Amino acid sequence: MELKLPDLPFPLRPYGPEADWSYDDGVLTAWAGPRQDRFVPPTGHSLEPASDAPRLLGAPEGDFQLIARAKAGFAAAFDAAVLYVHVTEHEWAKLCLELSPDRPTVCTVVTRGHSDDANSFVVDGDSVWLRISRTGKAFAFHASTDGEQWTFVRIFTLGDEDRAGAALVGFMAQSPVGEGCVVSFDRIEYRDSWPEGLRDGS
């Protein structure tokens, strides 16, 4: 199944568990089931995620920015609406609006074999704008409370330039310890450029 959003120049395909992805009147919605997540604990020895989470991904070309306002129906700790980038099964990253553990928070995970985990800032309410950008093998994460003034969250690389250039990007839902979480994304926007300034709010 492919899903084509009018604001994206590439089709999206589902990966992982079934999530009932749907798009209606500018809003993309999905459901993460119980204990669904993408995370490889840094304290563990396995390079395989303990579980999987539903993703809807496509392949942009060249430099880009993917922007969306993310909203999550928080019911349990670590429920999240996520923008996700996938380079290989052992190299991927996510930018989350997550209940972490009891307040909505912008969180990030970058996985190179094992995952790291970092919180950025607390959000008032159940929604926030998220943005993934790429140039070459570099990716940047930003978040915004109004969709205009952007807070720099992190910059990082994944893989070499060829693998990063073929990355899949898109949307994810998770409910690592809960019984499920409904997420939605609207104000979806695509730009074929890297941000002019990473730390100046643009």
TrEMBL record:
Q: Which InterPro entries match?
A: ConA-like_dom_sf, DUF1349
Q: Name one Pfam family in it.
A: DUF1349
From the Swiss-Prot or TrEMBL record, give the protein name.
Regulation of enolase 1
Organism in which the protein naturally occurs: Streptomyces pristinaespiralis (strain ATCC 25486 / DSM 40338 / CBS 914.69 / JCM 4507 / KCC S-0507 / NBRC 13074 / NRRL 2958 / 5647)
